[in-house]
Design a protein that fits this description.
This protein is α/β, with parallel strands linked by helices and 430 residues long. It folds into two domains: 123 residues, Immunoglobulin-like (Sandwich), CATH 2.60.40; 230 residues, Collagenase (Catalytic Domain), CATH 3.40.390. It has eight helices and 20 strands. Strands 2, 5, 6, 8, 9 and 10 form a six-stranded mixed β-sheet that branches. Strands 11, 12, 13, 14 and 17 form a five-stranded parallel β-sheet that branches. Strand 3 and strand 4 form a beta hairpin. It starts with 6 loop residues before the first helix and ends with a helix.
């Protein structure tokens, strides 16, 4: 049947069952009824704290005759009206809509189905998890300073990185770690970030949380290429602040498109090692104290043990800000990438979803869907990425297991103990 085209068939993010249309084939779905429905969700787990929110995703299919038989085309989500689908628990209890919350994890799981046009979907089952006890982790606050290092010639031309861009990235980090955006497995990590207000000398900062240094081109010496040495050389220039009082984040104009964060390298002796992080070196509290008091204070370890680098070019409008800044912070606190497409590498968190990038060869000749935030798990669950450690994501969620890893580091790695000092907020000793 080669009649008039229905554009949304080609533009939808649908999966085809049965035959796929041949090249150049045009199919008519204009009068077709819903023939098949499937149900998935934005995660296969849900925290039973009454706040975490699971969103059910209905997939409705229409049928047409193709050159080689029946073709099912998925109706785009934005064409599914609210009254087309009804949502149910497995026992037949009707839900008000696609969102579900609960405080009861006693059964360990909950199952759902949907109805549309008299057709019933598959059962979709979600694992339920008890939340952490409220007193399990204390809330801690990191004083943050962004050291903005730019070429003086660019600064003279007015090409200055605006504080608004920095504060927007900072808000993304803060929202993710505080669990401010609802999701099925999002948690409040108890980790907060606050912009520093006082310098190491106790002076009030001109821009909250921002320390600027401009260098003429001849003084750069390919700043990032020899970054470790350069940072130490410029300690006197005031762009390396005491790691016991500040979380240092350097925003470098000549970072060559590269943001850099490294997993923790040192941890207190007796702490259970984090799987997936190689060669963590144990030191006693006394060794850490001596470690910090050597004459050349930062000479014995990498500056990446105490801070991170963001590339200035990755600060822009809209999606240009989705450059992994939040994920870099996650890495700094011991989290690992979640992608599973190469060798099935684990992030050692059972509540994240290992995935592959979702591809539709018929949709994009390059093999990738236009929205790279859409992923697919090994068992075929489609979802939009929200986890901060996904390779392309809305970067708004951190799970319970990820939180456990992070808090192991915040509590047991002295090079991550800036949260213990209030100097950056008061300009005074605690």
């Amino acid at each position: 049947m080669k009649t008039k085209s229905i554009l949304y068939l080609l533009l939808s993010l649908g999966i085809f069952a049965g035959c796929t249309p041949g090249e150049g084939e045009v199919l008519d779905f204009s009068n077709a009824e819903i023939e098949k429905i499937e149900l998935s969700a934005d995660h296969d787990q849900l925290i039973a704290d009454g706040k975490a929110t699971l969103t059910l995703n209905p997939m409705l299919y229409q049928k047409a005759e193709g050159e080689d038989g029946v073709v099912y085309g998925r109706i785009p989500a934005d064409r599914i009206s609210g009254d087309m689908v009804k949502y149910f628990l497995e026992d037949g209890t009707e839900l008000e809509g696609p969102e579900y919350r609960t405080t009861d994890a006693s059964k360990g799981e909950v199952s759902f189905y949907i109805m549309a046009n008299g057709v019933k979907s598959n059962l979709f089952t979600v694992k339920l998890r008890e939340p952490f006890a409220k007193d399990k982790y204390e809330t801690i606050t990191y004083p943050v300073v962004f050291h903005v290092v730019q070429d003086q010639d660019n600064v003279d031309r007015g090409q200055v990185l605006g504080a608004d861009m920095i504060y927007e990235v900072f808000a993304m980090i803060q929202n993710a770690f505080a669990g401010n955006i609802l999701g099925p497995c999002n948690v409040d990590t108890g980790v907060r970030f606050q912009l520093a207000e006082y310098t190491p000398a106790g002076a009030k900062m001109q821009e909250k949380g921002i320390n600027r240094l401009s260098l003429y081109g001849s003084n750069w010496n390919y700043f990032l290429q020899d970054f470790e040495d350069e940072i130490k050389d410029y300690q006197a220039k005031n762009i390396l602040w005491d790691y016991t009082k500040y979380l240092n984040i350097w925003i470098i104009e000549r970072a060559a498109g590269e943001s850099v964060a490294r997993a923790p390298h040192y941890i207190l002796a007796g702490t259970e090692a984090l799987p997936g992080i190689d060669a963590m070196e144990e030191k006693t509290a006394e060794e850490f104290k001596a470690f910090a008091e050597v004459e050349t204070k930062y000479a014995e370890w990498s500056i990446f043990d105490i801070g991170l680098v963001f590339d200035l070019e990755q600060f822009g409008d809209g999606d240009e800000l989705d450059c992994g800044h939040v994920g870099q912070i996650g890495k700094f606190f011991g989290l690992l990438p979640t992608v599973n497409e190469i060798n099935g590498v684990s992030d050692y968190c059972d509540d994240t979803m290992p995935y592959e990038r979702y591809t539709e060869s018929w949709y994009d000749k390059n093999g990738y869907d236009a929205n790279n935030r859409l992923k697919i798990t090994e068992d075929g669950l489609l979802f939009y990425s929200t986890n901060i450690m996904d390779d392309a994501s809305f970067r708004s969620s951190i799970t319970m297991d990820q939180m456990k890893r992070m808090r192991t580091i915040t509590d047991n790695c002295p090079l991550r103990w800036a949260w213990k000092s209030k100097w950056a907020f008061t300009g005074k000793e605690d």
